[in-house]
Write a structure and sequence with these properties.
single chain, 428 residues, alpha/beta
Length: 428
């Protein structure tokens, strides 16, 4: 078992999150709500804690207020375990006044903070992925092989590797080639898994596979420091390829569920998959729970509803409604005769008082939540949205783009932006 005190975990807060816009309009990617009650950043943090690694840095840059607030409210450590979560935002120094320019640049500019804590290994993670992994196993393999760098890799069918970094892995798990997001079919086919490695995989898919980088790296301390003594900005595009043939690079093969939630469609589909009878990601695994902010909300009240494959968060009020294949977030309020199908509703940050609801009525403004007689299809409703009575929303037959009242269609998914106000009777 690896000594947890020798490991520092570093979670990358991500860039501007343009592919996940408008969900990142007012927040960074790791702060995007997930599965009715969580945030994306809860996944890597929980994986670290469940693996026994409780010294964690989160590197942030864009729209970080909600992320900072969530982490500060969610994770607290006793003074005896030496655990912490430190949030490191981009800062001006004597050496640089610029923003982080990539994953490697972000780590380079914070090495001074890492080195103030005793460690031998750095575990580098992404903040916008959905998976469950015991990181102690990749650390143990890193130590046992004498690796300088270990890269977590997942087998992917050749038909689905677009946009992923691929590697050629020898039968002893050493890495001999790494190509960041190749597009040439000939290059992709040249990187398929060898027959010997294929035989060791527990999951058979019926077509050739490649090993794709999960964006999870283990670096030995001295190797990381030396590999960043340059101006390289990104691990996948520059640092890892530059280390090939010079350092000992190994692959750690992971065969569990993993989803890179980098686009609106990926986010939408990953959430709705949780409503399946046997979802690919199991939030009910008591051996490795996912931790989040304890809000102490009341149980949800569901009255006279027709519900089919739905996840409902805490503190919701749903009356006389029809819900099919939906994820309903915390504090969601749905008026009578709501008809939702394939909808991710993130809920609300607070309950309105009776006085506030009356003030909204006086101003002819919908209250937070969903009004009566609404019909919504294939949509994401962001937090604190106000949707009036008789609203009908669907992206079917409509092009991507911006529409009225804070409605955006992206990747074929209709998004109601955070704090949007949609008047009664609006149809799209």
């Amino acid at each position: 078992m690896a000594d947890s005190k020798k490991v520092l975990s570093v979670i990358m807060g991500g860039g501007r999150g343009t592919r996940l816009f408008p969900l990142t309009k007012e927040r960074c990617k790791p702060a995007v709500p997930l599965a009715g009650k969580y945030r994306l950043v809860d996944i890597p943090i929980s994986n670290c804690l469940n693996s026994g690694f409780n010294r964690i840095f989160v590197l942030t840059q864009f729209l970080t207020a909600s992320l900072h607030r969530h982490i500060n409210k969610s994770f607290h450590f006793d003074p005896f375990g030496a655990g912490f979560i430190d949030i490191l935002s981009a800062e001006q120094t004597e050496k640089s006044s610029a923003w982080y320019e990539g994953t490697a640049d972000a780590v380079r500019r914070n090495i001074v903070h890492f080195n103030s804590h005793g460690h031998e290994y750095i575990l580098i993670l992404s903040g916008d992925q959905l998976y469950r992994m015991d990181f102690s196993k990749i650390i143990e393999q890193h130590i046992s092989t004498g690796a300088d760098v270990t890269i977590a890799a997942i087998p992917f069918p050749v038909s689905k590797v677009e946009g992923l970094g691929l590697m050629r892995v020898n039968d002893d798990l050493t890495i001999s080639e790494f190509v960041e997001k190749p597009k040439d079919p000939a290059v992709i086919n040249s990187l398929t898994i060898s027959d010997a490695l294929e035989a060791k995989l527990t999951q058979k898919v019926g077509e050739k596979q490649c090993l794709a980088s999960m964006g999870i790296y283990v670096f030995s301390r001295d190797v990381l420091n030396k590999s960043l003594e340059n101006s390289m900005k990104d691990f996948g595009k520059e640092v890892i390829p530059a280390l090939l043939g010079k350092s000992k690079l190994y692959s750690y093969i992971f065969e569990g569920y993993w989803e890179d939630i980098g686009t609106v469609r990926a986010f939408f589909e990953a959430n709705l998959a949780l409503a399946q009878p046997l979802p690919p990601f199991n939030f009910f695994d008591r051996s490795a729970p996912i931790y989040t902010h304890p809000r102490y909300l009341p149980a949800s009240k569901i009255n006279h509803c027709d519900i089919d494959h739905v996840v409902i968060g805490d503190g919701c009020l749903v009356t006389d409604s029809k819900l099919k294949h939906c994820v309903i977030g915390i504090r969601s309020i749905l008026g009578e005769n709501a008809d939702l199908e394939d909808v991710v509703m993130m809920g609300s940050d607070y309950y309105q008082t009776e006085k506030e609801v009356l003030a909204d009525k006086a101003q002819n403004r919908p209250a937070i939540g969903l009004g009566r007689n609404c019909r919504i299809r294939r949509a994401i409703i962001d937090k604190n949205a106000r949707i009036g009575d008789g609203v009908s929303l669907s992206p079917e037959g409509k092009p991507d783009g911006d529409y009225q009242h804070g409605v955006v269609i992206r990747d074929g998914i209709l998004c109601v932006t955070k704090d949007a106000i949609i008047p009664s009777g609006y149809v799209l």
